[in-house]
Amino acid sequence: MCSGRVDLAHILRAFAKGADGVFIGGCRLGECNYITHGNYHALNLALLSKKIFEHIGLNPRRLHIAFMSGGEGNLFASEVDGFCKTIKELGPIGQSEEISPARLEEVMSDITRLVPYIKIEKHEKLTVCLEDETTYEDHFSLDEIKRLFEEVASYYIDPAKCQACMICARSCPVEAIDGGKGVVHVIDQDKCIKCGTCLNACPSRFGAVTKIVGGPVPAPLPLDQRTIVRKGGKEKTTSTEKVLP
Amino acid sequence: MENQLIAQPSDGFAQGNFGDVIVVGGGISGIQASLDLATAGFKVYLIEKGPAIGGHMAQLDKTYPTNDCSM
Amino acid sequence: MHIYFAQAIPLITYIDESCLYLKEKKCRICEGACKNDAIDLHQTPEKIELKVGAVILSPGYDVFDPKVRDEYGYGRLQNVVTGMDYERLMCATGPYEGEILRASDRRHPHNVAWIQCVGSRRDTAGDNGYCSSVCCTYAQKQVILTKDHNSETPCTIFHNDVRAYGKGFETFYQRTQQLPNVRFIRSYASIVGEDPETKNVIVRYATADEGVKEEQFEMVVLSVGLNPPKDYQGLAKKFGIEVNGHGFCQIDSANPMATTRPGIFVSGAFQGPLDIPESVFTASAAGAQCGELLNSRRGRLTTERVYPPETDNTAAEPRIGVFVCHCGANISRVVDVPDTVAYVQTLPNVVHVQNQLFSCATNSMKAIVDTVKEKSLNRVVIAACSPRTLEALFRDTLQEAGINKYYLDMANIREHCSWCHAREKEAATAKAKDIVRMSVARSIKLEPLQEFDLPVNRAALVVGGGLAGMTCALSIADQGHDVYLLEKEAELGGNARRLHSTIDGKNVQADLTRLIRRIYRHPAIHVYNEAVITEATGYIGNFVTRITSERGPAVIEHGAAVIAIGAEEYKPTEYLYGQDDRVLTHLELGERLAKSDAAVTGAQGVVMIQCVGCRNQDRNYCSRVCCSHSVKNALQLKAINPEMDVVIAFRDMRTYGFNENYYREASHQGVRFIRWTPEDPPTVEAAEADDGRAVLQVAVTDSILGSKIAFDADLVVLAAAIVPSRGAQEIASLFKVPLGPDGFFQEGHVKLRPVEFATDGVFLCGMAHYPKHMPEAVNQAYGAAGRALTLLSNDIVTVSGAVCEVNEKQCMGCGACVEVCTYDAIELRKTRQGEKAVVNPVICKGDGLCNAVCPTGAIVLKHFTDLEIESQIDALLPEPIEVQ
């Protein structure tokens, strides 16, 4: 296993569970024993996480990444000692930041739900090799993180356009789409990971799935109004008798 | 030539003190030779004058240049 | 009665000759004390007759005993220790449990000096003439570790040229130099005595600036060298082999594993002073040669291990057994083991907890097997040391007990706890509990995994037809395997084609011609000249490599691959090379010497300049071979014309091992050695000598006198660096193996896996690994053959079950995983639900990068799943706040 295996969700989970700090140790950069150089991924992840924490008002110094070889026990010890000192200065999580445990839990939970979305949006930046230490700080900017959270997309199936063909439901990796043959499909926004698979899956001639950025998602049709009544040919209406263009 | 001289018919030798190779010395080199030969299908006798194998390497603290633990 | 040392294998107590009963038939207390009736005082030495087909001698070395010369003060002065003693002092299992203390007052020394070359590189009686090869770097390691113990301690190394000739040694040397309060002083140092009160050791030495001076050190470490094994004469007599003048095995430089007696081989330091990696690959090499000899009887005497059938525990409630190891006192002197055991009993799903003195001891492992069976355990946690060393062993134990071996978790309470928190016992015990609790939590989530048995194609591919590649190919072919040998040039031979003699006077071309003839005549070796690899796919046991060659395109299927693509001589841009044809490299000089070129044989003055193109910013490594190469050529020039003025301008003479003898010989022959420093390198310019002949004038600043000395040279010979082959990068990416920071191929482990890669089934030898002398290349070539045979001689190979897997339903086909997998183990396949990722588990190395980038969690690194990792996170943090 490589330090590149560390997942954003792991870090968030530790903080959500009340950890005061998280330390990631990886091999020396550029000295991969395999050919993966996954420690650069870990570095990117740490840089991203720090910016996210800064964005939500959590001290980014609570996360620390350091690189060393298996033979550098002294370096490991001094890194850990230094980090423990930092954490002691910062005190228990949320205290110096003035975030209540409940609020922290809520925020971490919100971000955890967005992990798939963040992975997709930042995939490129999370997998590059940063050779120059001076570029670390600006690899992710605060503005960028702000935008990332503002522009969280939601996906919505327009009941007027949905042909209840099951294509999107079958392709959804997290089974967030409800509905069946002849029943208008509805995305369960709590389950949705915002991967956009349904958008791509919906046949373009239907175009029923839309991506909504920023705004609220319309409420789903009540359960009793989802059955499609076909009037022959290719036309169709829902049980509300609303005729489609 | 050598092969024919030394590789006598060995069927039925599995019983008794017949082996393929004796390795004299159980330091890192003797251990590696024994492991390789055994994995490659030979019966090996590893003999060591001391009470344990490992030789000098077992007594080192770390090894250069990576300073990994020697054990 | 003793236990040899804490981690001894086998770990058994033994009785030595000082036993009262054995001497005087008295005592017998131990018999009564042993509850298991295990003591038998009537054992007598037994003679066992073994009949074998071959013998490998690997008796190792003995450490030089500085007591043979009173001047070292060893044994007389309490605070003078040998390097080996110091090694034990630093070690956690050592006399002061890892504290470096002075024998005189049990205090930490605050000022330590190392004296190099103790017993080595000296002509005097009792000392050895050769260089012991390992002391320079082990002393640097000890400096670094001393600084780990106490970063304030000033460290001084007295040396006579630092021989950082090996892979990674030069940067290691720099790392040591850069530590604060470290001095490297080039001077012979002698021990004058000790201060009667403080017992500090007084050392006399000389420097260019200050002349002779004395200085006190609180401790002095003698960097003692390597001797042949003590009883080398008895050994030689017993086995009927010859030894050389130093008492090491007499070997043939064309095959350093061969002794003077057929069927008896030598490996390790009995060949001569060797470092650990050489000891390891000469062992594999000697193994390969036994294999050549005994190929016809392979497999006849071996028996296969049979494991009991595995119980299916997938549906069973987790029943965890936890075994907490004392590791002798390594763990238990810091961590309260009984307290930890009591605590673990309270954890969920734990049905058995016990402590063990050494969990890795044979009897303890038996106890684990028995307990698993008796209590129907289906998970085992070993709270002991790092999984790096013993996980394989304990997995085997689980298999013996009939449960899936991936149901094991190791809680590292030694390296991660007792060793680093020796002074905080209570906190360490609390941490040990945390670590075990996390381990128990993880083990609940563990899943049984299946390993893959793959068929092994019995053929090998050897890339590179130089000395190493050919030697390796022959050894594999002689053990009954087809070998495909690829050479990029039109002819075999590589760099060896340009070498004409060895330092010990062997005719390289004659040997090479014989070797090439054997290759072409061998029915199992298929040579492809002018070969270019166009594609390399597949995996251990089943590679497919496409090539084009003078014989047209070909597809080669093979089970193993050996990278032996060699290295190249650097084309200098320095010292008028290429501008003035009187400036040559050593290879060029060798070729001209072989032709008895008049410009060479008739030269009055020759100046050799060392370290051209390496040990600098561009190439921060030592090319290892050039010092000996220069000495060899200098001796040849002197042999042609003893009056010839031969000068070697060097930085450090690194004639390690027995080559030191030739360095000394060159001095005796009147070869002049002058040192230069990188800040003030030599200059070369065309000039006129006093006698009016046109010469090249080489000016070197003498480091002792501080003034420029000019030499008139008819020829200037550059010790040009050895640089990685131009094809290295491409070959590395084709076979998915790494290159090190210097551009040479990076082996699996510097010490213990010197001829293999982390990528299974791919092996390495020759200068592709690092510059090396021909005998060393031969050693490594046979070594690679030996390791390749451990794969090729089996019908199947087993690969890890801890690999990635895709849950197709969850896969959204985004391809993020495919992109990050540098092993090309993942591909997207079209399905009715769109594209889905598929992992080839055999190629997957289990790094888990794909798992981290997968948005939906569809791809999972087995054995390190999110569920397993998160259970550990949750177990660590005592008051969980629910996330969702």
UniProtKB/TrEMBL annotation, chain B:
Enzyme Commission number(s) from the entry: 1.8.98.1
GO molecular function, a single term: CoB--CoM heterodisulfide reductase activity
Key words of the record: Oxidoreductase
Enzyme class: oxidoreductase
Superkingdom per UniProt: Bacteria
Pfam family, one: FAD_oxidored
Record protein name field: Heterodisulfide reductase subunit A
Native species: Desulfoprunum benzoelyticum
TrEMBL record, chain C:
Residue ranges occupied by any 4Fe-4S ferredoxin-type domain in the UniProt entry: 802-831, 835-864
Biological source species: Desulfoprunum benzoelyticum
This protein's name: Heterodisulfide reductase subunit A
Enzyme Commission number(s) of this protein: 1.8.98.1
tRNA processing recorded as keyword: no
Keywords of this entry: 4Fe-4S, Iron, Iron-sulfur, Metal-binding, Oxidoreductase
Top-level EC class: oxidoreductase
Source organism superkingdom: Bacteria
GO molecular function terms noted in the UniProt entry: 4 iron, 4 sulfur cluster binding; CoB--CoM heterodisulfide reductase activity; metal ion binding
